[in-house]
Structure to design on (65 residues):
């Protein structure tokens, strides 16, 4: 549609990475921090899940006497 920004343009604008000269430095820093935290959560979440699954498998149910 004419007048509608493309998906990549909208995403860059939403993340604060569109290169707008009027954007404050704190807004740009917030955008980079947000991207970094998202990356950390996307990496650390599955690793934490795998660690918890390994721990649960290692401990297992109690053995009957």
């Amino acid at each position: 549609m004419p007048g509608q920004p493309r998906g990549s343009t909208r995403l860059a604008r939403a993340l604060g990475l569109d290169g707008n000269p009027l954007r404050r430095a704190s807004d740009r820093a917030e955008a980079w921090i947000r991207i970094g935290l998202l990356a950390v959560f996307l990496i650390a979440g599955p690793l934490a899940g795998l660690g918890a699954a390994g721990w649960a498998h290692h401990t297992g149910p109690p053995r009957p006497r």
Q: What stands out?
A: Residues 54 and 61 are 13 Å apart (CA to CA). The two ends are 72 Å apart (CA to CA).
